[in-house]
């Protein structure tokens, strides 16, 4: 393909990048929600009490993951002239992130879900 | 590099690179599924850890674990669906049907029923 659009008329690449950012923000919000203290200090709160230091692990892990994915997206975004063209194909970069980034995101959401269930069952 | 390996893998699958807009739409659909899974996890966090509910332990755990299970199913299925759609587009085949919307609908309906049970017959 030799066509090299000056600007993607539908801003598809940009929309996809925004979609990535939205998803990563939701991921961070859900982890913060998970680490929050229960609304009441009832019986349910007492048995769910976790060492505050242990709560830092998922927070830092998610922050590192989100930062890594963000850096990956940024690098690709800059390398493709702000989503205008990929040097290999000439058309805008597709997908915006590499497939491994998608698999990593899926896996981390799965781990988060399993952690939520496990701490409820075991706690 | 894993990316070049997977690219090569898809090369051997035959066909040609689809229009980048379709690839990007596929990627956005994948991300929307991930956000759906995250919303379900948020619901599970609320039921299992955050909101004080005077439900029986049975309904609480049922609702929370069902939400989590649904989220995990979606996170496993979403990348597979992305690859399948991508492959179908490369070969110009019709897009594969996915059981995911049906699974999600049925699952969320069952969770709603369990919530009603938890609220009125704890």
Give a brief rundown of this model.
Chain A: The chain crosses the membrane at residues 20-36, 56-73, 100-122. The complex is a heterodimer of chains A (123) and B (122). Chain A has 123 residues and is mainly α.
Describe the structure.
The complex is a heterodimer of chains A (123) and B (122). Chain A is mainly α and 123 residues long. Chain A has 4 helices and no strands. In chain A, helix 1 packs antiparallel against helix 3 (52-79) and helix 3 (52-79) runs antiparallel to helix 4 (99-122). Chain A is elongated. Chain A starts with 11 loop residues before the first helix and ends with a helix. In chain B, helix 2 packs antiparallel against helix 3 and helix 3 (57-90) packs antiparallel against helix 4. Chain B is elongated, with a radius of gyration of 19 Å. At the A-B interface, helix 1 and helix 4 of A face helix 1, helix 2 and helix 3 of B. Chain A: One of its GO terms (cellular component) is endomembrane system. Chain A: Its main location: membrane.
Layout: helices, strands, pairs:
The complex is a heterodimer of chains A (123) and B (122).
Chain A: H1 12-35, H2 43-47, H3 52-79, H4 99-122
Helix pairs in contact in A: 1-3, 3-4
Chain B: H1 2-12, H2 20-50, H3 57-90, H4 100-120
Average the pLDDT over all residues of chain A and give the rounded result. Answer: 80
Helix content of chain B: over 70%
Q: Provide the structure class of chain B.
A: mainly alpha
Query: Uncertain runs of chain B with pLDDT below 50, 5 residues or more?
Result: none
Poorly predicted tracts of residues of chain A = none
